[in-house]
Specification:
Layout lengths: L1 E7 L1 E3 L8 E7 L6 E8 L4 E6 L14 H15 L7 E6 L10 H16 L6 H16 L7 H6 L2 E7 L2 E6 L6 E6 L6 H6 L7 H19 L3 H6 L7 H4 L6 H10 L4 E4 L6 E5 L2 H14 L7 E7 L5 E6 L1
């Protein structure tokens, strides 16, 4: 048997929800932006190879690859249930740049664990899977957080809760929104992006953050598009992280001229997103970003919709 699982890129924080909001993206041209994991039966216990556009960014030693950690973590979870992992061969097709702010590590983790779980007849339940994904994400970023892995796995706009046994829940969003997402081709590590943030915030900033997040969620449920867009303001990370992103202010200014409802930083950056409602203007912004914001061949721009499906099987042979 062989299985292929795709896990999409994701936008976290979404300006209003630092470590609390995230959603996966789907380019409107039908292309897939994310990582794939292939898994097949094998004679030996385990093997792992890498491929894809950003293969060169991965460690040469497979034991330092996050997919190997997925294998070990999944095997341990099966053992707790009295089950044994199969002999398998895995391949990570790495299509997302590392340190891009698009949930690159999350996509690999989600694709790897979902492939393992499907291959083992979905032996682990969804909640247990998401907890394991967050644990493995924490090994890379230094702290357990779910704002990339949960939306990547589950699809849709997700609000992180992590209370009463609930990791996250979906939030309705606006189908008419286009998300113009641009990765300039440079990398910012999550750790470095966190280090630039203050250790303490003023009471005013804390109150503003809570108001923006609550207002955005309320506007999504009450279908107030303009109010939701107005709430997409970041007082926690963007004032500091924007200085790490060349031409961020230029992007915001030009997007606003074209009618963008909001501009923000995806995750830790340097990827930026712009919310548009007019496709022609979104295409004009994409062209400008390609010419003025993208710095090298690693960079790219996509006009996206919110991906409601999340991780999924895209190939299967029995």
């Amino acid at each position: 048997m062989s299985i292929v699982v795709f896990a999409p890129a994701s936008v976290a924080n979404v300006s209003a929800g630092f470590d609390a909001l995230g959603f996966p993206i789907a380019p409107i041209d039908g292309s897939l932006i994310g990582d794939k994991v292939f898994i097949t039966d094998a004679d030996s216990a385990f093997s792992l190879v890498s491929s894809g556009r950003f293969k060169h960014k991965l460690p040469d030693d497979y034991r330092e690859n996050i997919i190997y950690d997925c294998y070990l973590g999944y095997a341990a979870a099966l053992e707790k249930r009295g089950l044994k992992i199969k002999s398998i061969a895995m391949e990570l097709e790495k299509n997302l740049p590392i340190g891009s702010g698009l949930g690159s590590s999350a996509a690999s983790i989600v694709a790897g664990l979902e492939a393992l779980n499907v291959f083992h007849d979905n032996s682990l339940e969804e909640h247990e899977m998401v907890l394991l994904m967050g644990e493995l994400e924490g090994k890379i970023s230094g702290s357990v957080h779910y704002d990339n892995v949960a939306p990547c796995a589950l699809g849709g706009m997700q609000l992180m809760l992590n209370e009463n046994g609930v990791v996250s829940q979906s939030v309705p969003c606006f189908d008419e929104w286009y998300w113009v997402v641009a990765y300039p081709g440079i990398n910012i590590s999550t750790a470095a992006a966190r280090d630039i943030l203050p250790t303490q915030y003023s009471r005013a900033d804390c109150l503003t953050y809570g108001r923006h997040l609550a207002g955005f969620i309320h506007a999504c449920y009450s279908k107030q598009q303009d109010l939701a867009a107005a709430m997409l303001q970041d007082v926690i990370a963007e004032p500091y992280r924007s200085q790490l992103i060349p031409k961020f202010d230029d992007v915001r200014d030009y997007a606003k001229e074209l009618g963008a409802l909001a501009t923000g930083i995806s995750g830790s950056g340097p990827t930026v997103f712009n919310v548009m409602t007019d496709l022609a203007q979104a295409e004009k912004l994409k062209a400008w970003l390609d010419a003025n914001f993208i710095q090298n061949d690693d960079g790219f721009t996509h006009i996206c919709k919110l991906d409601k499906e999340g991780a999924r099987v895209v190939g299967r042979e029995l």
